[in-house]
Protein 1
Amino acid sequence: MNNNIKQTSPYISVIIPVYNDAQRLQLCLAALENQSYPKYSYEVIVIDNNSTDNVKELVNSFSQAIYAFEKTTGSYAARNKGISLAKGEVLAFTDSDCIPALHWLEEGIKPILEGSADLVGGRVEFYFQNKNSAAELYDSITFLNTKKATENGVCQTANLFVKKNLFKNIGLFPDCEEGDDIAWTRHATTNGFVLSYQDKSIVKHPARKLRPLLHKFYRVGKGTIPWLKNVNTPAKKIMLYILRDSIPPKWGTLKRKIENHNLRVSKIMFAKMWSIAVLWKVIRLFGILSSLIKQRST
């Protein structure tokens, strides 16, 4: 690991892509305006990915924030634009629907300053609009488990710190609809760069309601094949992956997930969550098939 960052407070560039999410972006930027990290040591770059709401006006109302525009559709194209504009030695990625905690930057940078990491994944805490929503509960136990992800050598851009020079060494995010962060961080760790987990670097993320959750399922499916190809998965393994993904979910698997998150749910709620688990399999499979059909037609 090449540890060339020695400053007490190295300059950090926070990168946030946004598409028609001004209301939640406002909460995100308000939290970033009041970080415990020195204001002179960070910037917040918001990349507008063809929004139709008042993103530019909103961004310009915050002193730490800088507005940028990326016409190429896709959050990773927007993130790559942010990387090209960033002044920081360290880049901190989060999403427009996330609310960083007061010490997010201060805690996230620590493993890099200590020389123990090139990349750092922080904790994502879910918050609920309706705790009786099966969709929100299922989302909270299924996605954005950054602790488990970092243990497997990957991490999501909802809460990720990266030394900027890594992008010079291994390139920018690939161009997929979903999972580019997983593919890129896998590429980084397999090339010898060190990824660590920082539990005290926290962002809060809203648990998804049913409709956006189902959209997430389909989007993940559409991005699965391009992601597998990006990590050089052989064709036979891709087919096995698809076949395995077609197997209906097991009750026991869902039960363990619920127990691992120290949740107590009624039998009715469990049945609702299991129904969503079935939809996860079905809709994701439709997304995979859609991606395969699109590739064959081009």
Protein 2
Amino acid sequence: MTQMVHPETMDLADVFYQGQTLNSQGDYDAAIAAFDAVLNAQPDASDAWVEKGHALVSLGRFAEARTCYDQAIAHAPQDPVNHYSLGWADYSAGDYAGAIAAFERTLELETDFPNAHYCLGLCHFALAQYEEAIGFFRHALDLQADAVDAWYCQGYSLYATHRYEGAVQHLNHVLELQPNYQEAYVLRGDALTALGDFEAASNSYDGALGVDDQNAAVWLKWATGMMQLHRYQEALTGYEQAASLEPDHWEAWCGQADAQTALGEFETAIAHYDKALELNPFADAAITGREAAVRKQNGEDAAVDSPSDQANAAAEALAYVQQGHELKTTDPAAALAAYAQAVALDPSNWEAWYGQAGCQLKLGEFEAAIASYDQAVALNPNSYGAWFNRGVALKNLNRLADAVSSYDRALELQPDDFRAWNNRGGVLVSLGRIADAIACFDRVLEINPKDAKAQQNRAILQKRLEASGG
């Protein structure tokens, strides 16, 4: 319940103190009323402006808080607290550039102002400027060696810049300071995975589950680690746990299917890939996994011979494919290295070629991507994703006629995929085949009538066609 403030019966110092107390108790509206009472009597009270700003920040009213801090700075421009408070309001509102300017001004006024270096690190961290963030976090840790969040953010910044061993060392220290820091266990597991130490990574994910075993994302990572260790039954259990916690998580269903494929349970795997594709029709991992399961169910991936060395190489290649899947979103270069290892171990693994091609495409290595997609479709001619993405790579090299042919093959496999029709139409425009391009966009709008891109492109092309007398 909001407390009433009666400034007429109190002196200003008492009203200010009561406002601070109300702020600390979370009664922010009453606190604001108290600070307003002080400011009505003494408009240049910069400390009251700051405290009122703090209450407004707690209420998420950042623009009003910023106005308060501006007033405090106007009345006391040399007080670093005022600039620091303004920086925190800007940071909380997502204005990282404004926050950086305010925190830098804070440090100009007081070189080692508490938390200012850390907050500058947070701003650069939020902007993905990790090298800059590392310098500020390091300075913050020089000032306060037990600042656990600074250790974590420093570790994350090292991970994001691919310095995985340094990240592990920092995260070890986080867990020494705070053993129940779940995010540190998870990130340490990710760094160990990037280093290829799957056993240690799984142990780190175990630690995270020891803190909270109701986190589907952690179960997914743990299960993927089990896949990389070829412990497929345990992996299946982990994916099932993730799906039970988040039934709409397509990756949990796809993971179950991957494990069941590895266990030879192809029919169930295909059903689970179908479930994943219901939730995300464009999930490449589910599309390629389902295609592989169907081929194996039909005996199409049988080896010419089967010595134990070949079987071991195929199993190790599968682990690298799983590692590539884990890394491809956050670190395509590291994922590419994993897929390349898989290809070297088992050149008949079309999924490894497909994953390698996807990373090469993302990294702008279009010629190499086309070569890898060629290998993928040679091994699995019915891979819609390989034909589609091959078309994307060809378009980027201005091999337009070849791109159209690749999209045509993709559309033979999935005639109702509006993305391929959209892309095909765009290439036809570049070839000057305006009427054919319009037909593609018409097909897009049959499938997806609200597609704004197709609507706009069709309207522009229709005008161009009419103007040319076509």
Protein 3
Amino acid sequence: MTNEQEPLTPQSLDRSDTMRVSLVPELDRAALNALTERAQEPQTYFGRGLELSDYDREQLAIVATTADKILEPSYSDPDWKAFEDLVKEGSDKGILRSFTTHKGTNIPTWCIDGGRKTTVKKIRTDADQVAIEVPSRIFNLYHWTNTVESIKNYAVSSNETLRGRDTKNLGRNLQQLAQLIGKPDTE
């Protein structure tokens, strides 16, 4: 039997669809869609042409809070705790370093998706780099957690600070969190 990897989807979290958080009425999908489009326009590279209003920042905070509520039950997974402990240990030793992420994710390359059946463990990659191998559900949870944290950072960054960042990530992260949060019950 192969150790298949789960696709990076909201459904890959270990929860049922009935656990989805109902969207709060303050979530303005039209404003968030417009912000997502603005953030991904070619002229907004490294923050040029994108300024977040107070309302935009409020919407980002609501998205992050809603996503946090969806993710919260997954944080009680013992594998998540084991992963956090290894990340802390590796960070304290200064051995978990990566300037790149896995394609399409917000996960540093030292975190390896070992598939559904693996356990959380320290490994060495083929390139002799220290890494942590995790089950797919933990890999996916780490992606969603980092995505939420990124949105929180955008919500509190000044417009001056945004000029030094690649705002296309904001648009990509908003698109991904829209998948996690799902469609409102009224649609």
Protein 4
Amino acid sequence: MKTFTLTILSIILSTSAFAQSRELSDRALAISDRLSTLEKQLDRRDARDIERALSDVEYLLARYNDYGDSVQLTCLSNGQSSAWEKFRITDLNTNKTLGGETSRSICQSLIESQTKGMICLSNGQSSAWEKFRIYDFRTGQYLGGETTLSACKNLMETSNKAFICLSNGQSSAWEKFTLFNRQTQMKLGGETTLATCLSSIPK
């Protein structure tokens, strides 16, 4: 059954005993056959633990399904000349554009800095009005509010597979941050400083 197969995968992936993908899948399938007969006998606590493990595995595998080697991002020109020429991130496989137009150098840096299934995208404004927002490839949704380019990159880099600090989109002294669970798509707690938010990310 799918539930048990993915559950066992989470257990196996958490150990170092099985390094090869074939060994992982073979062991997962073998144990899932055994556990499939026990599903109706599970108590509530064990069922809840299995659901948590399932969520972890689904999240992990989604990174390969939604964003992997098959996705090719590049910066394409808007066709204008001189100061009016801008570039937008484009998926070469689907011709889908992501975010607003920006300079070529910034566009390339956004592609280079993508990490953990996320990327910072421009709002398409110029100079001081240009802000950036985190885009989650797995869900196809933006995360948090707009912030500076350096802050946007920092939020991605300091995140882990499940938790990230997100900006409220305000500027300067009014900008605050909230811990966000990418697996459950829920905000945790209230707004605080960046340092405090980062300290609350589980290690």
